[in-house]
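Reposting from the mailing list since nobody answered there.

I have sequence plus structure tokens for a pair of proteins and want to know whether others read the tokens the same way I do. The first protein:
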Amino acid sequence: MAEIKKRRFAEMDETGKKIAAEVAILEKLLQPYEVFSDGQLSSYTLGFFKSKIKGKPLRAYFSRKLFEYLSYSKNSESEDFDDSAKEKEKELFFIKLPFVFEIVIVIQYLHNHILDDKYDVRKGQTEKINHNLVSSNILRELLFLYLHQEVKPLLKNENNIYDIHQMLSKLLLYVDLGQRIDKEYNTYIKWIRPSAFPDLISNRSLFTPFVKACIEPFMAEVKREVPYKNDFIETYFQRIYLTNVYFFECIVEIVMLAFDYKEREKDNLRKFSIQYGFMLQIINDYADYAYSSNEKERNLLKTASKKTTDFFADLFNFNVTLPLIYHLEEGSRRKIEAYLAGGRKQKRILNQYPSQIVNEIKESGAIRKCIDLSRQISNAARLCLDEQNPMTPYLHDMCEMAMDNKFYKIFV
């Protein structure tokens, strides 16, 4: 597995370098819309994008590896394509579509920085908030300009571009709907006063029976642990499906459409993407509590969307994520409950007692339960893949993050 991880990281770096070059196309698309003589529209719109894309692009790599998996599955017994067709496929699936997915995630990050007070974008900082909103809106339009200019000519069936456009629009809409749930339903106020809020519609189409079946055993485990909050728990799982998990399912749907993949493994790959996405989000939720008093260690905890100062962002915003679902106790006098009950005026608790906050959520067993659940989902996701496919070890290694990661190390 160590050799696979090494090769996977090298491939991720290679993917990052290839798609980073595509930023020049976005800059060219922007040129006709420049309105100031300083020519700063590109840096204004693409500044964060350029800094983010230098790293290992997870979703871009996921789409590339999925294509390689599908390619082996579909073509292992069929005739070879000519070299020009292979090069066209490589350009589409190694560069153009991965770049599309990176544009989408950057749009999400720019919005999330505002919604969650992250990445030095704080409420009341009008200039930064305006910048994020305007640049993300411009980037959204660039996404579709790029899609029709760069992706469409490479498709086997150019008419598929309209389906892909609709899928991406749906993805962006799902994220915003999930953010509404995050801000209005997965909150501490909803946790303590559930009757004061309307319920979400049961059996709703946004959380389909297929999706629920993929995650039901794990959701049921959380419900058994916290039986008096079943409605809240299901709302939480729907929210993270909309804001994070559906992205991976959408990648599967778009890549399969572009590749004209209709084989029997289709549902298995959707299931893998759904469970992989839930695994990642649960890791992300407990990572929010991965504070360290050691500055060098804090620097290692940075991510593409989060700086070292962004720890406890969910707690700060009164979002009840999985660690709090496991942790909260009525009438408790711990620092975490004191902050939530006291409101923003108690913010000093988070600033003055960060190590105690970490110790509390560890000692309640909440972090351990999150880690265990992410590992269960990781193992289930791996079972969806064909063991004979040479790309499977790479996708398995992507699931290995649940077993060992830089956030987990803070809690052991």
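The second protein, same order (residues first, tokens after):
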Amino acid sequence: MSRAVSRLKNSLLVATLSLALPACQDPVDKAAKQRIFSPEAPPQTVTAAAQKLPPEGVADDPAVARRVLGMDAAEVTERLGPHLYTADLVTEWASGAGGSVKLVEKRTLRAGPGGVSGDFHGVMENSRDQGLEVLRVGGKVYARNRYGTFRLRSRDRGIAERTRAELTGALHDFDELFRGRLKLSPQGAGTHEGRSAQRYAVSLAPATPGEATPDAAELPAALNPRNGRDDTSRRRAAFFALREPRSLTGEVWVDAQTSVVLKATLDGRLSVPGDGKGGDAGVGEAELHMTLDSARTEIGKDPRLKPPETFLPDADKPQGIADALDRFGVPRSGPAKPDAGTPPGGAEPDEDDDNN
């Protein structure tokens, strides 16, 4: 009896192994296991930074030119290492009615080692006494408006990546506003901060039929509000749809080793029609004059960034209107619930507000 049971067990074991063997050899199963147990893929920025971009091909290959001119801060840091980025951007509107509006921006980004996840300190200020400052140290993010107090932003880490990209995106924005018509002409080699670079003169390329912003194909169609657009939205839409580049001059220096733009000076003019062509009735043509002066210096120098000495703890967005009423002594209908992280005298303006 015991021998019969043993034989039965052996038969079942052989049958089980024979059924499992083909399953283990299934190529689909093997591929699935390889994907599941393979090492995690590196971030897309790290992969992009490993791509070789020939600096001498910027003038001849539009794809290389777009990659170099539009390279974001994370990839630049991966390629270049620690550095200091500064940019002065001036925009001035002049209308047919004789009025003009001018805005001067100062942008600074001090990038530390560590590449895409490294520390950095970014500051943006303008001539209207507005500004924003963001600091990331050891994975923790601190932010404040120009005259505010730093606040820890543990639940809004995306502000760090957004601010870093905006601070260093002036050259990309310039190219986009001018409908991708930055023409680069080789001017030989040069040296910047002890690094070899390819120099390019910038001019306005001829318009092509059906030209559009380089990223326009990726945008969905605009939605029409039920009650129509307000004047401000209508003017903005008219500007982006009808803007016409008029002139463009300048110079761009591209690092020979990393293909990062080391410095750029641009001066350009755009015009927008009026009188029935998308503009306001009775208003003539408007012109936008823009200048950019940017540079990357202190390359390879570790700024040794530190957290701010004083900062407020992370907290929910202040209650806005209710906090404003508290400031002016207007009592609430219910019991007040003060924010433990809010200083006396009212809530600190959030860095995402319009006054920054």
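Reply #1 (J.P.):
I read it the same way you do. The first helix runs from residue 2 to 24.
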